[in-house]
Amino acid sequence: MSSHSVEKGSLPDRFRDLWNQLAPIGRDENTGGYLRYTWTEPELRLRDWFRDQAAQRSMPVTEDGNGNLFAWWGDPADGNAVLAGSHFDSVPHGGAYDGPLGIVSALLAVDELRRAGVAPTRPVGIVAFAEEEGARFGVPCLGSRLLTGALAPDRAAALVDQSGVSLAEALGDRPAGADPTLLGRVGAFVELHVEQGRALVDLDSPVAVASAIWPHGRWRFDFTGEANHAGTTRMADRRDPMLTYAFTVLAANKEARLRDAHATIGRVRVEPNATNAVPARVTGWLDARAAEPDTLAALVEALGTKAAERAHRDGTQLSVTEESVTPLVGFDAGLAGRLRDLLDVPVLPTGAGHDAGVLSAHVPTAMLFVRNPTGVSHSPAESATDEDCAAGVAALARVLTELCR
Ligand code: GLV
Ligand code: MN
Ligand code: MN
Ligand code: MN
After folding, report:
1. Domains, the chain, ranges and CATH?
2. Does the model's pTM come out above 0.90?
3. Cα 378 to middle of ligand 3, angstroms
4. Closest Cα partner for 259 from 290, 286, 284?
5. Residue 352 CB–ligand 1 contact under 6 Å
6. What is the ipTM of this complex?
7. What's the CA-to-centroid distance between 243 and ligand 2, angstroms?
């Protein structure tokens, strides 16, 4: 391996040295959160940083025509590659670790293997997937869905961001779509990720292995009424979509609680968005998740029915559009069991979506979680200690060593 500065010091120090290189990129100084939208300036800088890190490790970088980047130790054409990695993009004002931790850990794990003199008999790859959060174009895990064929390239090409820029324009081309050759060369995928809840704090463990991802999806609720004057329109004469929207937010919370599920309306658009006008239209995006697919379906169905009844009473109209759905993911039980035995750590399900969930329908896939002391994620409060991150790197290095021999 080429000699570079991350060689020195303890593993937590080496983690911090590498982490400090990308920590300032895309950070908003006011909130401390990150604005790393896919193919915008900060995310492009992270991609350049990735290429540079790969070059320092003599790992050639390939792109798959869907915006996903791969760095290779060994020739991927040999097949049965062991892949590790995650994503660089963030939600609006997201945390530092969600995504980049998996990529930085994979780079450091490769360093660990080389320090230990491991000579892999399988190619080892590091991946940075595009648009995992769906924060720019609305569809989460966009890069992995395109690669696996779960999303049609024509549908992806036409997605637009909030400024009207299409995905094809941002990528510079129509996405290539499913790549069975590349996918067929991957024998296993391991995504390390910061934990996004409090389970590892409660379990007093720095690392865990994932068992499953809850089924989840996004639905757009369009409420249409009639724009009118706030001062002169009698209350009885209004057709106010904000009322139907407000009812729906409360109903989503209630329906989720009834089922031990999760429902969130975290994004809203109001038109024309004037203080002194009854709105013409309100659009709210529902994010719903549950442990079981039937529970999720029942939740969305019940909410749609209740919101439609309320729209009738308010004299408004409602249309509901499914934007994306991810089925229940059960990670490869053999692989998860192997990792649990190797690392002696807890095994947990999660309600968060990941590229690993998309890959798992095609490739034996596993996830490692690193403890998050605040238990908060998709927020600047997300955190992880250098020691726990180093424990994650060490765990990933053990897993890669085991898999690539
Ligand atoms: C992605 O982080 C998601 O689970 O929404
Ligand atoms: Mn996320
Ligand atoms: Mn993530
Ligand atoms: Mn995610």
Report:
1. 5-214+328-404 (3.40.630.10), 216-326 (3.30.70.360)
2. yes
3. 9
4. 290
5. yes
6. 0.93
7. 30
